[in-house]
Design brief:
Phenylalanyl-tRNA Synthetase, Chain B, domain 3; alpha+beta; Uridine Diphospho-n-acetylenolpyruvylglucosamine Reductase, domain 3; elongated; Rossmann fold; 475 residues; 21% strand
């Protein structure tokens, strides 16, 4: 990578900002400043470009409390720097180790989550959703290698992007990287030229974090094989970006026909999805996961491949993914979400309820109306949630409950009883729905699987004297 003169760097950053539309004209930006050369260089350059961009800056620094006096000194340095530059600043402490323990994360993951939660709080208070970070070209190359090692697929080979979204629940941040064309060596030289005297983070010398091992061990090793390995990785990233852009264009045309979303669950049309090329299938799966959880940090290539190899599995197959996601296979569709059962048309039934016959019974999510009439007054009902029975065979001591292990009944039209589970499979009732289907029972047997079939032994015949009519109404 060619070394440029430090006086040219602000113009380089300005052109990069304009080319990628990183800052809206007259917008407000929170600058994340750790105190190191990259973030200090970022802040100084953005301040120098203020007349050109019209940007209003707010400095944010988080003391992770991980390096004792050194962390405190970093916080003091950033506070003093912001004051010298005449900029508003938010400098806080947060307990990363306590967060790590409560969330059971690695220290790196915990620090990252705490840091971005802090930046989101500062941005919200400052009236913006844009946060600038000091990631450089070196960070970009390290990220490509990190993703390659973790097996994050083509999307990971793009490395860092000029801008990206960070999500946590309903909170979204637009993270911009104005220094992505500058090297770490150039930020150090820039700070030296402007006598900014940034801080040295000694934790960067540790070989414990993966990124540090990549920086200090792997990259020098790769350079011994190819001195231009950085340029080679950057070319790979550009190719990956071009390939993904092409896939995205095709995916946008397909999206409405194959992918829909309901109740925070992504629904994929099974027949159409199966016919897509594997590259497009992977792209749609990754895009769906990213939409649901906000980022793909914990989703690796192996997770996508596990889903890919299950596409032809029978209905009922469920795959558990990171971030609480579940991929469920149904007869005519795939479901991706944290709770595919939420798409069930049935409210959840957790216990047994007695029905008032005749009369009306209120159940969680249902209203059940029971009428008794003679056979001549019975009209045909097309509604699958309405059914008629021979009252003498059912009796009036009926209950509604969820299914139980070992349940059997004799579906209308069949000569022998059948296991309820087998009936549900044959009827293609999605697995996620089965525990919610209302099962109506007399003291002797199941008389109705609501929405599907009554029992042969309680049907209305020519000899029926009184008819029991049950109607389930969603509320």
């Amino acid at each position: 990578m060619k070394q440029r003169h430090t006086v040219d760097l602000p113009e380089l950053v300005f052109k990069f900002i304009m080319a990628h539309r990183l800052i809206p004209e007259g917008g407000k930006v929170v600058a994340a400043v750790s105190g190191g050369p990259d973030s200090v260089c970022l802040l100084h350059i953005l301040l120098g470009l203020r007349d050109k961009t019209g940007v209003a800056l707010h400095v944010a620094h988080l003391n992770h409390q991980l390096r004792g006096d050194e962390s405190d000194a970093d916080a003091n340095y950033v506070t003093d720097l912001a004051q010298r530059l005449g900029l508003p600043a938010t400098v806080e402490k947060r307990d990363v180790k306590a967060y790590q323990k409560s969330k059971r994360l690695s220290l790196e993951e915990a620090a990252r989550e705490v840091r971005y939660n802090f930046l989101a709080d500062v941005a919200r208070a400052a009236g913006t959703d844009v946060v600038a970070v000091g990631h450089t070209l070196d960070d970009h190359i390290e990220t490509i290698l990190m993703h390659l090692i973790r097996g994050s697929g083509t999307r990971g080979l793009r490395g860092l992007q000029p801008s990206s979204q960070w999500r946590s629940g309903e909170v979204a941040l637009n993270v911009i990287r104005p220094l992505l064309k500058m090297s770490r060596e150039e930020t150090v030289a820039y700070c030296r030229r402007h006598r900014l005297e940034p801080r040295l983070d000694t934790s960067n010398l540790s070989l414990s974090p993966l990124r540090n091992r990549i920086r200090q061990q792997l990259i020098p090793l790769l350079q011994s094989y190819n001195p231009q390995v950085g340029d080679a990785l950057l070319r790979t990233a550009r190719i990956a970006s071009d390939d993904l852009a092409a896939l995205e264009e095709v995916a946008l045309e397909l999206d409405g026909n194959i992918v829909t979303e309901q109740e925070r669950t992504v629904i994929l049309d099974r027949e159409r999805f199966i016919k897509l090329p594997p590259a497009l299938q992977r792209h749609l799966l990754r895009a769906a996961m990213e939409k649901l959880v906000g980022n793909l940090m914990d989703i690796e290539s192996r997770h996508i491949e596990e889903v890919m190899t299950s596409l032809h599995k029978p209905a009922g197959k469920i795959i558990t993914l990171p971030d609480g996601l579940v991929f469920a296979i149904e007869y005519d569709r795939y479901l991706l979400g944290s709770d595919p059962a939420a798409l069930s048309p049935f409210p959840d039934i957790t216990k047994e309820h007695n029905l008032k016959i005749p009369g009306e019974t209120a159940l969680p999510g249902w209203r059940v109306i029971a009428d008794i009439t003679d056979r001549k007054q019975v009209a045909d009902d097309d509604d699958s949630y309405t059914a008629c029975f021979d009252l003498d065979r059912t009796g009036d001591k009926l209950t509604v409950r969820p299914r139980r292990p070992g349940d059997r009944f004799q579906p209308l039209g069949m000569s022998q009883p059948k296991k309820l589970n087998e009936f549900m499979i044959d009827s293609k009732i999605p697995r996620a729905w089965r525990r919610r289907v209302p099962i109506i029972c007399s003291p002797e047997q199941i008389i109705w699987v609501a929405g599907w079939r009554i029992d042969e032994r309680v049907k209305v015949t020519e000899n029926t004297k009184q008819v029991l009519r049950l109607e389930f109404i969603r509320i």
